[in-house]
Specification:
Blueprint lengths: L1 H16 L4 H12 L4 H7 L6 H41 L5 H7 L9 H15 L3 E2 L5 E3 H4 L11 H4 L10 E3 L4 H10 L4 E10 L11 E11 L4 H16 L5 E5 L5 E11 L6 H4 L1 E11 L1 H6 L8 E8 H9 L12 H4 L6
Parallel strand pairs: 1-4
Antiparallel strand pairs: 2-3, 4-5, 5-9, 6-7, 7-8, 8-9
Helix pairs in contact: 1-2, 1-4, 2-4, 6-13
The structure holds 3,4-dihydroxyphenylalanine.
Length: 344
């Protein structure tokens, strides 16, 4: 009987090599170790066996059963793998494609340097407790001018060449100061927020002017806010951006929505040869203490609260950081330019 079991096992080992479908493998297995399989047949004649044989047959048949189980599982896995590979070949899925794309430089898009700097500045301000607000590109007269203490007759309107809509009531916002107005409308003091975004001016373009560029507006309103607070936040921002303490100076500057208004300049050395020739003060950040009329227009009592505001030019910041000489590169869509800033 033991020989018969051995022979049956040997036969199974050869037979399993000749099948290639999972169903055939399972049939083969049940033909041998299934309820009505050949092993059960052999075991039926156990009663005729000698006592020694009987002792050996139990362990033997168990061992053969488990070997056959193992071989079956192994074969099923092999078949599954072959089937997957056949499917992949048929559907032409090429996993090496991604690598070859990377080698050819065809990578996923990266973030534009203006966006990168915008996120950095947002992070710096949120870490100091500022909210980040958004506002529409298409604005009305009130949010772009009126509420900012720039009445219709005010000469400041000439400072900003505006893209007006035909109705002459709507316009493409000329600055992110509109977000100051919307921020005041939507919250109660004390508050502090920044508002980044695109702004539009109907201007002839040159190395420092574009029709569409990016600003980040900032506003802090509370009790007893001083120019000292303003300088502290601006210096912290610049230190984080340029990774070192920056020397700054405030010059008087006129903007109808702040009183007093300032131009904040940084001491800047242009990198490259002839450094000293290019060092000097660079106008970077107009700012000031919020005009009482602006607070009033935003529904805030200027006798109780005051604050500061600033308008940071993000494109200018990118140009300073990377020593880019022409703002038009930023909007050129030239991948040779953009790729230099991709972070992968
Ligand atoms: N909105 C001004 C502009 O685009 C920039 C500006 C100046 C914003 C002074 C401010 C500020 O918040 O206080 O020319």
């Amino acid at each position: 009987m033991l020989d018969k079991i051995d022979a049956l096992y040997e036969k199974f080992k050869t037979d399993i090599n000749s099948v290639s479908k999972q169903a055939d493998v399972l049939n083969l297995k049940s033909e041998v170790i299934g309820k009505k399989g050949s092993l059960s047949e052999i075991l039926k004649s156990l009663k005729d066996a000698t006592p020694e044989e009987r002792k050996a047959i139990g362990p033997k048949s168990n061992q053969v059963k488990s070997e056959i189980e193992k071989l079956t599982q192994k074969k099923l896995q092999e078949i599954e793998l072959i089937e997957i590979n056949e499917k992949l070949a048929k559907n032409k899925i090429d996993f090496s494609l991604r690598n070859s794309m990377l080698e050819r430089g065809l990578v996923a898009g990266g973030e534009h340097p203006v966006h990168q700097i915008q996120r950095e500045v947002e992070d710096i301000f949120t870490s100091m407790g500022f909210d980040v607000l958004d506002g529409p590109h298409i604005e009305d007269d009130w949010h772009n001018f009126g509420a900012l203490n720039i009445p219709e007759t005010h000469p400041a309107r000439d400072m900003q060449d505006t893209f007006w809509f035909k109705d002459m009531k709507h316009l493409l916002r000329t600055h992110t100061s509109t977000i100051q107005v919307r921020g005041m409308e939507s919250r109660k003091p004390p508050f502090k927020f920044v508002g980044p975004g695109k702004v539009f001016r109907c201007e002839r373009t040159d190395t420092t002017h574009e029709m569409c560029f990016h600003q980040l507006e900032g506003m802090m309103v509370g009790k007893d806010i001083t120019v000292g607070n303003l300088i502290y936040f601006m210096k912290t921002l610049l230190k984080e951006i340029f990774k070192k303490d920056m020397e700054v100076r405030l010059r008087p500057g006129f903007f109808p929505f702040v009183e007093p208004g300032f131009e904040l300049d940084i001491r800047w050395k242009k990198p490259g040869p002839g450094e000293s020739k290019h060092s000097g003060w660079l106008e970077l950040l107009p700012c000031g203490m919020v005009h009482p009329n602006v607070l009033r227009a935003g529904g805030i009592d200027p006798d109780e609260y005051n604050g500061f505001a600033f308008g940071l030019g993000l494109d200018r910041l990118v140009m300073v950081r990377y020593a880019i000489e022409d703002i038009r590169h930023l909007h050129s869509g030239d991948l040779r330019f953009n790729k230099q800033f991709a972070k992968f």
